[in-house]
Design a protein that fits this description.
CATH class of the largest domain: Alpha Beta
CATH superfamily of the largest domain: Aminoglycoside phosphotransferase (APH), C-terminal lobe
Order of helices and strands: EHEEEHEEEHHHEEEEHHHH
Helix content: 40-55%
Structural class: alpha+beta
Shape: globular
CATH architecture of the largest domain: Alpha-Beta Complex
Strand order of the largest sheet: 1-5-6-4-3-2
CATH topology of the largest domain: Aminoglycoside 3'-phosphotransferase, Chain: A, domain 2
Number of helices: 9
Largest sheet: 6 strands, mixed
Radius of gyration: 19 Å
């Protein structure tokens, strides 16, 4: 492993204080000024914007995610060579390990995150991705849809009854997914294909966040927006139709979709579960999502974070 640093990083959960210490050490190592850093997101990763350096710094939540960071670097180069509009790396030898936390530096994209009105752009960009030939200079890992769900459940500060329910659901879903007969051919997949993993710059959509890239079924990418529409209530029927028309496929018409929908629900619920101690709003949203999973219907729309 290259670029290994040991630094004075506080013990404890993945928090704003911890990632700020990691950022400070990584910036000192690279010589990139981070005094103006702004924390953009704290979720599966921490994202910082460094305006003076026109950089975005990505810090992975777990020391176990080194291989994913290595993959992200390889995927970024491959997408650039393939001509697909995607995030570009900062010109550094990376990833960097700071006391075990993987860190990568990216070129800042002057624009905005995808949102309302961009769902068609997501469909078109996913189609381009799924049509891109398999990389030849590195191996994409085989798709493992539920890879991170169980560790999230085991480490979360939620009631044991919730943990038992969720862990049992993971076992059921793994069996159901393994039994599926997918209609589409395997492709490179994004793995977390929601509209906020687009940046819109000068009217053009750019793909970001390559952490969950794998070789597998494109239905998984398509089912993300479908689940946001049907389970979370984040899209109107017209917006979802626009997504399907842009891609050329409506995954909800496949009889295996309900299983992928359930898998996305548990991923979305356990993702937000990681940060329930950060705010009352996040804790309340987790309660809404786990209730939806237990009852099979949402009593109120899910809130995006």
């Amino acid at each position: 492993m290259h670029n290994v640093l040991e630094a004075d990083i506080p013990d404890g959960p993945f928090s704003s204080d911890l990632v700020s210490a990691v950022l400070k050490a990584a910036s000192a190592h690279t010589g990139i000024d981070s005094t103006d850093a702004r924390l953009m997101r704290l979720g599966e990763n921490a994202l910082f914007h460094l305006p003076d350096s026109s950089a975005v710094v990505r810090i992975a939540r777990s020391r176990d995610h080194w291989d994913d960071a290595v993959k992200e670097v390889a995927v970024a180069s491959w997408l650039h060579e393939s001509g697909l509009p995607a995030a570009r790396l900062y010109d550094l030898d990376q990833p960097i390990s700071v006391s075990g936390y993987p860190v990568t530096f990216w070129r800042y994209i002057d624009g905005r995150n995808g949102g309302r009105g961009d769902v068609g752009a997501l469909g078109r960009l996913l189609l381009k991705l799924h049509e891109t030939p398999r990389p030849t200079t590195f191996e994409l890992p085989e798709q493992d849809i539920l890879a991170r769900v169980q560790p999230r459940i085991e480490s979360a500060s939620v009631p044991n009854a919730d943990k038992r329910f969720l862990l049992n659901r993971v076992v059921e879903l793994r069996d159901e997914i393994n039994a599926l007969k997918f209609p589409l051919e395997p492709t490179a997949t994004h793995g977390d294909a929601h509209v906020q993993n687009l940046m819109i710059s000068d009217g053009a959509a750019i793909l970001i966040d390559f952490e969950r890239f794998s070789w597998g079924q494109p239905e998984w990418d398509l089912a993300m927006t479908a689940t946001e529409y049907l389970s979370a209530g984040w899209w109107t029927a017209e917006e979802y139709r626009e997504f399907c028309e842009a891609y050329g496929n409506d995954v909800t018409q496949w009889d295996g979709f309900k299983i992928l929908q359930a898998a996305h629900e548990i991923k979305m619920t356990t993702w937000i579960m990681q940060n329930i101690d950060e705010s009352e709003e996040i804790a309340a949203e987790y309660a809404t999502r786990i209730a939806t999973m237990r009852t099979g219907h949402a009593t109120e729309p899910w809130r995006p974070f």
